[in-house]
What does this fold into?
Amino acid sequence: MSVLYLLVLLVSLGGMTVLDWRFRLFFWCSPLRAALVLGIGVLFFLLWDLAGIGLGIFYRGETTLMTGVQLAPELPLEEFFFLTFLCYLTMNLVQAARLVLARRAA
It folds into this structure.
């Protein structure tokens, strides 16, 4: 049992937060809307994972890099943080692309 993967995900989330703060991309642009979008995105992908687990498509792989804590059968704790990182990264990239395109148009 290890927390290495969880730590990597938390550091990555921290990096996304710093980029968001520095360039005012997502949460620092519109906090309420950002929280809603991020929450809906994470919930969607958690439901997607649970459906895949229920159908026998997804399963938890054995590795020594994870904590071993499960939120549900075959759903490790790290999956929640990975999905949060994935959604946050996507929204930061979308907002960054909008900023770049707006500057080029000006």
Observations:
- The chain has a mean pLDDT of 94.
- The longest helix spans residues 77-105.
- The first strand starts at residue 70 and ends at 72.
